[in-house]
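Notebook B, p. 112. Complex prediction, attempt 2.
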Amino acid sequence: GAGVSQSPRYKVAKRGQDVALRCDPISGHVSLFWYQQALGQGPEFLTYFQNEAQLDKSGLPSDRFFAERPEGSVSTLKIQRTQQEDSAVYLCASSAIAGRNNEQFFGPGTRLTVL
Amino acid sequence: QKEVEQNSGPLSVPEGAIASLNCTYSDRGSQSFFWYRQYSGKSPELIMSIYSNGDKEDGRFTAQLNKASQYVSLLIRDSQPSDSATYLCAVNMGGGYQKVTFGTGTKLQVIP
């Protein structure tokens, strides 16, 4: 398919476990974003990549959260020592250009439940 | 004050009516404005983008931007039950940077 893909779609983790969430952006898209969406809220920005460079990670809630995009394509969001408050939908979006007038296209999301 | 504000709704309109969704934003330097539709349990889907003052029409959708009033709206003409969803307003706050801030969304219910 031509859209953004994410895996897994659902993840259940026990508190304290580490998880890794994958995002495969639209081919050729320069920019990649991670968001966290709690129930009834809008997506909250986590981090942004332009190619392989992580230009903004100001939204990462703690040092347990780590993201990478080593080859400027696929990205992984890792959460260490998961806590119940990490339960949310994690959305990945990509856009074709680097610049202000960018349109972001979202993947289906990963629903993380921490027990 | 939230950076991007929307009435959470629900906004109920009868089928065939015009639905009007509103959004205000705090940063006068904002340059880019987007409307996303999100069905329950699904991810946001981009439906409109607008960058300059005035109206932009695309099918049944019209986005309106007033930078002086820091206000952006989305009109949906001839509303259909399939339009029932949460509509998210998203704003790029400017500064030559791609970060987009979302509102909490307005839930729209179109009553058959």
